[in-house]
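Lab manual, section 2.4: Encoding a predicted structure.

Procedure: take the sequence of the chain (61 residues), apply the prediction step described in section 2.3, and record the output as structure tokens. A sample record is shown.
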Amino acid sequence: MTAAVVAVALLNSALRLGLDHLWLLRALMLLTLPVSAAYSVVGILLDLPRPPGPREFSFGG
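Recorded output:
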């Protein structure tokens, strides 16, 4: 939820400043990497349920 809010805020500011989408993608990648790493570490420490990885998604099967 927080990541979605941050993504929308970044998109709005990028559009306002007239920046291209590559800058936005770089900023999103830089933001999501530490967040996902921190979530993984906290999940391992607290044994929280982790979100499914790319191989665990089922496409209509």
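Check your result against the sample. Residues 21-46 form the longest helix (26 residues).
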